[in-house]
Structures are given as C-alpha cells and as structure tokens.
Amino acid sequence: MTLSGSNRIALVFLFDLAAALAAWIGGFLLRFNFEWPAGYGQAIALGAGVLLPVHGFACWRAGLYRGLWVFASLPDLKRVLTAVGFSTCIVVLYTALYRQPPVVPRSLVVLYPLLLVAVMAGGRAAYRMWKEHRLYGALIAQGKPVVVVGAGRGGAMLARELERSADWRVVALVDDDTSMWGRELGGHRVAGGVDSLPEVLAAEKARHVILALPSAARETSRRAADLAVQAGAQVFTVPGLEDVMSGRVALSAMRPVQIQDLLGREPVRIDTEHVQGMLAGRSVLVTGAGGSIGSELCRQLARFQPRQLVLFEASELALYTLEQWFATHRKDVSIVLLAGDVKDAARLEEVFAQYAPEVVFHAAAYKHVPLMEVGNAWQAVRNNVFGTCRVAECAARHRVERFVLISTDKAVNPTNVMGATKRLAEMVCQAFHARGGSTRFQMVRFGNVLGSTGSVIPKFQEQIARGGPVTVTHPEINRYFMSIPEAAQLVLQAAAMGSGGEIFVLDMGEPVKIVDLARNMIRLSGYSESEVRIEFTGLRPGEKLYEELLADAEETLETPHPKLRIARSRAVQERFLADLLAWLAQEVPVPDEGVRQALKAWIPEYVPSGGGRPSLKVIANSEAGRMKRVS
Predict the structure, then answer these.
(1) Are the beta carbons of 439 and 472 closer than 8 angstroms?
(2) Which residue, of 212, 230, 465, 496, is most buried by count of CB atoms within 10 Å of its CB?
(3) Is the C-alpha dihedral spanning 12, 14, 18, 24 positive or negative?
(4) Residues in CB range of 103: below 8 A, 6 or more apart
(5) Side-chain half-sphere CA neighbours of 336 within 13 A
(6) Do the beta carbons of residue 488 and residue 296 sit within 8 Å?
(7) Confidence of residue 314 (pLDDT cuts 50, 70, 90)
C-alpha cells in the first residue's frame, strides 16, 4: 500500500511528537535509574501538555516536512537541531517556572535534547538505511569492479550514486591527497595516490576507471587517464562539478574518455569584450566557411552579434550543412550563404560590393600534404596563393577593416608544396600590408586540429573500427595538436589584438608522438595492440618527422594573451607581389617539378622533398620545434 504525500507527512509529524514524548519521559527514567519517579506524575503530564504542541510547531517551522526521509542528510539534521533547540528552550522555561514540589530535575535540560536528537535523527537515518537496503541492497557485490580517481566532493558523490547502480561496484579510490590514504570514503578504501593506479587495478582485478576530478587541473586528469589506459583499463569521466551542482547534468552522466582528454590542454580563455568590440554590429565574411576551421569560426563568430555573417564556400554540401546548423542553433544570426571560388575575381567583386564585409577571415585552402604534393602542386598554388591574392585585392579595394589569413605550422621551413604555398600566402598578406591603406592584414599560424577533415584521428578511428591495422608513417613522427574550438577562439583573439602585418603563432603545447596517439586510441577503444596492430608505412611525400612553429630566422614577441605570440619574419621584397602575380597569371598548368623550383625561388627556406620522395628532415634545433622567445 502506497501512502499519499499528506498521509506520509502526517505520519512523520506523529513520529516527531512521539519522539518528544519519549525524550521527555525517558529523561525522567534515566534520571531515576529507570524506575518510575513517584510523585512526578503531574509534572510529567503538565510538561507533556505544554511541550508537544510547541515541539510540533517548532518542527513545522524548521521545515522538517519538506525533505524526504529516504534522502535524509546534513540539511535534515540541521532542521532537527533547530526544532530540538526551540523545544529545549521550552523545557528550560518549564523547569524554571514549575515550582510545585517535587521540582523538575535540572538534568532534564541536558537529557531531553540528547534523547530527542537521538530519536528524531536516528529514526530518519534508520529509515533511510532500511529503504536503501530494500531498494539497492540486492545490487551490492554486483556490477563491474571500478576504481574511482578522486576522493574529494566529486568522488564522494559519485561513489554514493554508484552504490545504487547494478552496473558498477566501487572497489577502491585513489587520490593524490596523502592525508586520505588508508582511510575510507563511504565504506570504500582510498588505496593510495594516482600514480598507484596500475597496482590498484591489478590488485582489485578491475578493468574500469572513472575520473571523478571535475574541478582538478587538466594535467592530473591526463596523468590518471594515461596510467589507466596503459594498464589496459577502460576510462570514463564525469561532468564538471559546477554543472552537477547547478543541476544541469547528473554526476552519473559519465562518458568514455576521449583522445582529446589525453592531450591535456587547458581550456582557452579569450578577451570576449575585445573580440565583441571587433565584431558586434559588423558584416563578417568567412571564405572556406564549410571547412573544419571555417565552420567552427562561423559558430564562434555567431556569439559576438555580428550584423551579418557572409559564408563563402565552394562546396554545396558544406553550405547546406552550415545552413542547417544555424537554423537549429542560431536562428537569431543573419547569415548569407554564397557558393563561389576564391579564384573567381568577378564573383568576389560581386560579393564585396553587395555585402560590404568589414572583417574577412580567409580560411579557404587546400591542406592535404600528400595529395597536393603529387599531381596537384599547381592547383595548390592556384587555390592557396592565387586565391589569397584575389581575396586580399578585394579586401584592400573595398577598404575592409581587417583581413585575417588562417595559416599553418607547415609554412615554417616547408618541405612540401602545401606548406610552401601557405608560406607564400603569408608573404602575400605581408606585401599587401606593406602597401599601406586602411586594411589591417594579419596571419594566424597553428598546427593540427583534432578531428578536422582528413586529419589523423578520424582516420585512426575508422581503422580501429575495421579491426586494424592502424597505419603510422614513422615511429618517431610527432605533431602539435589543438581542438577546433580552441583554434577558432585563438584566431578571433589574434584578430582582435593585431594592428596589421603580424604573424601570430599559437601556443600548441607539447608535441605528441603519432604512434603514442595510435596506441592510446586503440586502448581507449577497448582493444590491445595484439588485437589491433600498428603498421609503419614510411613517410609520405613532403612529410616531415617534426613540425615547427617558427622558421629558423624568426623570433617571437610576447602579446597580452599567454597563448599567442608574434613571429618576427623577414620582410618581403618590394617587387615581390608584382612578380608573383605575373607568375600566377599564366594559363598553362605548371608541372609539379616546375612548381617546386619556382617555390624554391620565392621561399629560400623551402627544401622540397624531391618529387614525391619522403623527407626525413629532422630539426637540428635541440628544442625540436619549440618556440624561441625574446623578451
């Protein structure tokens, strides 16, 4: 039989009244060694008559009937103490005012509240224990054994929730706080620090780890995830504690740890007020708007209230995808969807004349290194260099306020056609800025972005899903990585702080070995390397072992933002732009080798790999591509 809410409250109210009566009479019994005190009948009866209605009122005012007993906790104990305190004041007054012999023992002032707290709080705790055992007792010792990383608030909340799950069984916790080692949290032992995780997993025969570090530094989470993955465990993580406490998401809403979590990059914080001032109320054009970076740029730009977003893209499908995203998520943003090619001068002129963009983000480019190296070198030049010239010319002619080129770390000491064309595109922007005029030309250079089209992570995911092998070109190859949203945000920050002519270099953190990336992805997918093997295929045409963020002759200057620096590169020659445009204007396609020779003439630091032969160039610099800083 299920009681209604009002009936349940009535029963709890009666229990509290009975508790007060039991504490009142029990105090007398304790005082007289559990013998009925002769001659005190009138004092007991009169006291109970005064005490019960006052105690009932105190319980009601304290809010004792708003909580559910099955979830009785510290807030409920506070309410109990509030009601008991008020009730005890009545006992003190009664003891002082009742003068008929025999007088009420003064020890009742101490015994009554102690007994009342024990009955009221104990009754609620006992009910919760009985209810939880009835609901979840059968789940104990069931479920997969799991080790929780983190014994703070997040770990305590998670362990409590997992007790009610048939899927999980907490066998131990680990935490770097040495004061917790050897102690218990909700009946679960804190077995040691995060570094002991592999030993704890082996001792408890557990193959699952949950990271309950919602407020910890990213480095701690990454270290724990690395150790768990290396031990062959599947790793899950919980939402941020602020999301849990605000009620936006349940702590039990776990998700598997993703490869992005293992890269350990701290979240980017940008000066939103500065960016807002650059974009709010303005017309913004994004070329290559449907690409990985371009589309994320569009999503980030929508946050800053532009007057309109002009999305210029050669792919019809990409434009449609963008349209659907804005229709679903940002109906409030005015967008213009335009199909077109950045090499088409007439189309660009039409777009600039009609929509008058005030800020341009030029993200359109061919970026796949091996594809551009063999058979497509001239097309890479046409799209990446000639297309940049066309857009930059329109921007200068129409007095655009800012022109931002999205560049790449492959433009530094390039060994491939794609990287060389991006360096040439940077030089084009430098030349346009050197001409003077009202347009500020800026460049932003960064490395690989996680999950971008054609990047290594989607490729590895597909290969693992097929059962392998996972193909890595070289055991020593490494790359810098950042997330697409992080890259887009830093592009906006750089655009807002630039005065023109700068090449901004993003702090890409530490380089990651691709073979380690592959191993971690295999383990995160629940496989071992014996099940999904790694195969080395040799460096591809134009591919470096190491990427650099600065050319050998470049230095960097600090900016107000900790993740942005400015590269000081060599100035372009006065005749550079005219000579380059003359070369680009030829209508006959140029063979790959001819393109390489011409690029070598424009870019002295370009060392081509030789018509498709893999490059084994290793950076001599002991910093292996890390940014050189000048104060």
Answers:
(1) no
(2) 212
(3) positive
(4) 95
(5) 19
(6) yes
(7) very high
> How is residue 591 written in tokens?
């063979």
Q: How far apart are CA 180 and CA 468, in angstroms?
A: 43
In angstroms, rounded to a whole number, what is the distance separating the alpha carbons of residues 11 and 2? 13
- What are the distances in angstroms from CA 483 to CA 393, 486, 503? 31, 5, 20
Euclidean distance between CA atoms 413 and 609, whole angstroms: 12
Report pLDDT digits (tens) over 149-196.
Answer: 888 777 777 777 777 666 778 888 888 888 888 887 767 888 888 889
Q: 404 near 432, Cβ under 8 Å?
A: no
Q: CA–CA separation, 618 vs 544, rounded Å?
A: 7
422 is catalytic: no
Cβ–Cβ < 8 Å for 577, 431: yes
pLDDT at 241: 47
Phi-psi region of 227 (alpha: psi -120 to 50; beta: other; left: phi over 0): alpha
Task: Tell how strand 470-472 and strand 534-536 pair up.
Answer: parallel
Q: Which two tokens stand for residue 497?
A: 């702080």
Among residues 477, 524, 523, 486, the alpha carbon closest in space to that of 506 is found at 486
Which pair of tokens denotes residue 143?
């479920």
Residue 160, helix vs strand vs coil: helix
Is the Cα torsion angle 134, 140, 142, 145 positive or negative in sign? positive
Residue type, 291: G
Contact 310, 283 (CB under 8 A): yes
**Interatomic CA distance for residues 364 and 383, integer angstroms:** 8
Give the residue among 197, 232, 145 at the shortest CA–CA distance from 524.
Answer: 232
3-state secondary structure of 445: strand
Q: Alpha carbon of 52 to those of 61, 64, 78, 103, 622: distances in Å?
A: 14, 16, 20, 20, 82
Q: Residue 518's closest CA among 194, 156, 262, 252?
A: 262
The one-letter amino acid at 314: A
pLDDT band at 350 (very low <50, low <70, confident <90, very high): very high
Please work out, in degrees rounded to the nearest 5, the angle formed at the alpha carbon of residue 42 by the alpha carbons of 36 and 43. 80
Burial call 578-615: b when 16+ CB within 10 Å, e when fewer: eebeeebeeeeebebeebbebbeebbebbbbbeeeebb
Q: For the purposes of burial, counting CB atoms within 10 Å of the CB of 504, is it exposed (0-12), middle (13-18) or buried (19 or more)?
A: buried
Residue whose C-alpha is closest to residue 116's, from 35, 56, 190, 185: 56
* Catalytic-role residue among 410, 422, 544, 563: 410
DSSP notation for 452-465: -TT-HHHHHHHHHH
Exposed/middle/buried for residue 372 (C-beta within 10 Å: 0-12, 13-18, 19+): buried
Specify the length of the chain in residues.
Answer: 631
The whole-number pLDDT of residue 616 equals 33
The helix (H) or strand (E) run that includes residue 405 is strand 402-408
Q: What is the pTM of this model?
A: 0.63
Q: What distances in angstroms separate CA 233 from CA 86, 236, 410, one per listed residue?
A: 54, 10, 36
Contacts of 543 (CB under 8 A, 6+ apart): 369, 370, 415, 416, 473, 477, 609, 614, 615
Q: In degrees rounded to 5, what are phi and psi of residue 573?
A: -75, 160
Give the C-alpha separation, 127 to 471, whole Å: 59
In the 8-state DSSP scheme, what is residue 342? T
Q: What is the dihedral of CA 307, 311, 316, 318, to 10 degrees?
A: -100
